[in-house]
Amino acid sequence: MSGTTKTEILTTDGVPLKDSLKKAERKxxxxxTLLVLPLLLFIFFTFIVPIGSMLxxxxxxxxxxxxxxxxxxxxxxxDRQGLPPEEVYAAMFLxxxxxxxxxxxxxxxxxxYAKSGWKSMIKKSKRKFKKIDVNDGPxxxxxxxxxxxxxxxxxxxxxxVMVDPTTYEYYFNAIDKxxxxxxxxxxxxxxxxxxxxTWIKTFKVSxxxxxxxxxxxxxxxxxxxxxxxxxxxxxxICVLLPFWTSLLVRIxxxxxxxxxxxxxxxxxxxxxxxxxxxxxxxxxxxxxTIIVMTQILLPFMxxxxxxxxxxxxxxxxxxxxxxxxSPLHAFWKIYMPNSVPGISAGGMLVxxxxxxxxxTPELVGGKDGQMIGNWIGYHLKTTLNWGxxxxxxxxxxxxxxxxxxxxxxxxxxENIKLG
Amino acid sequence: xxxxxxxxxxxxxxxxxxxxxxxxxxxxxxxxxxxxxQQKGYINDWNGKVNVENYNGGLGEIKAQVEAGNxxxxxxxxxxxxxxxxxxxxxxxxxxxxxxxxxxxxxxxSECVVPQIFWAYTAFFDNKAFPGKKPKxxxxxxxxxxxxxxxxxxxxxxxTMEMALVADGVKKKDVYKVLGTPEGVDRAFAKLDTIxxxxxxxxxxSKPLEMVSSGEAVMALAYNGRIxxxxxxxxxxxxxxxxxxxxxxxxxxxxxxxxxxxEARKFVAYAAKAxxxxxxxxxxxxxxxxxxxxxxxxxxxxxxxxGVDVMPHVPTNKKIIKKAIIADPVWWADxxxxxxxxxxxxxxx
Lengths: 419, 349
Known about the structure:
Radius of gyration of chain B: 22 Å
Largest interface: A-B, 46 and 42 residues
Mean pLDDT of chain B: 90
Mean pLDDT of chain A: 90
Radius of gyration of chain A: 31 Å
Number of helices of chain B: 15
Largest sheet of chain A: 2 strands, antiparallel
Number of strands of chain B: 10
Low-confidence stretches of chain B: 17-22
Helix content of chain B: 40-55%
Oligomer: heterodimer
Number of domains of chain A: 3
Order of helices and strands of chain B: HEHEHEHEHEHHHEHEHEHHEHHEH
């Protein structure tokens, strides 16, 4: 002990230097934290909280359990053979009758996700149950008389997926699976299977768009970085001008160009390359979606590429050529590897934006161009199935997080620059 | 300098406060020619200030506003199945319907709405594309041998299911009975299969008109108001196929939690008056939902703002409505999600 106190360095006021330094540093740390605090709070409340609260909906099934607690309790005793016993009917009857209209409305919307038809059945029953006295049991036959769907076992079986306040069903729905009454995971009926296909399509379109952006963007960025300022400025404006033009305007212009009786097909017919009756279908399908998205996302590829290429010294190439490499070889061995951070940054940006794209596929997607974003939008706005929306969004977020992690490991996120 | 900025800032702030103190009603509708018709038809004559905003349909924004307790929309123009779901979920206020409840052609679908108009998914064709025999019925629309050429239809399932069944021989009054069974839905999709290779899809309401004008398609399904405007205002040579036209209802509702409830209630009562509804039909060929409003239009002919008769274009016209199907929002509220997924799978395969 005494040895350590001897060697300790003290400041002039007799405080150990270590503590004094710590104190000074702490002040700096607090000041720095205070400076970024507004930003942190902003991000927290406008980004993390809303996304988090939306994501919790993807597993939340508590509402329906609050509206029908007794029904679900007695339901679990049902052996799934034949119709449920009177006990279940009675519990359902009482809870439908006693709940408020809104509770029933919300609950029936939820039940309708599990089996189409619950909604109108519950609403109709709620109206008619008013006339039946609570002591007037048994209720089973009376309920079936009101709506014969009460005698349809399928509806009762569908209730089984909702008996827990937490559910993973929405995530299964998002990949064309669902629970059966015993909560085993089974396939959706074949003609409803749409999400797996849409996921694959979303990836395919995003990868193709990224690839085409790279193919088109690389030469442009190269020219931008190497041409004399006079020309490169002009070229830069050509890249940026469409970037500043309204998205909708650009989409509509593409429609005019690419539709069957549009400019492009007309030119092909006039020049005799294709026959009038064999005009190409380039719009309102996946082809159209890919073409338009490529054009829209091109600047996101060109700008990071350009910012990296600008830093590659022309001396490298000169040296390689001087040492006897062919131009192609020199490009492949020297220039290309140096531009990899730009390629990966541009690729990452374009891919991440493309995978969640909504408006372009909506307008030009037509037959088979819709992507996962369109289904998220559909369930958010039309069916109000926010659970499924959140699950689809959650999967998308997870995919992006993984991509980001891989990118960071391989290339390093600090390489993303826009100009 | 800083002082000047401060003064400018505070005066702007107080200006903002003053304007928000005299709150105007925020009326949210679909935009385009329809909302313009609402504005010219009755909103401009309302003795208060109305901010008209556009949206893209759906209940998403309304649900978000109501759940966050920050409702900035006072009156919203909505579709019937969304009226049903929104009222069930408690997103809308219950409204006084005594004024018009016995005067409706159909509906109202829920206790939370006042009537606006019927609009229709209607098939139409280019007269030039068929110089000889013209398509007359929905069967002709589905008959690609007799009337060859591309058909443009919308990317979602509403109305096409009903039309396919009628084209397959189902009586109009039985359409929803048949659709209520799994076999009925299969039957509709089987009928759609027969024209699948001859279909192009649109998602913006102006596109089918352009597609038929440019010859990209020879027939299309479109909103009847757009067809009416193309014929009467733009002088296009289009013909209607009124057979199995599907009538959709359009309502106004008040989101729960609006800060201007009293004013909004007065406004929707005014907006649902026969004269207001007839006023809309003066500018777009959608059909008023009240019988008395239809009478106002009939008596006022030529009622259309360009000085021509509008009744031949209005889908609740006696001759037309007997060929029409009134879309059942209850069936769509029940089955919409499932049918949409199926339709998406069908379309993409």
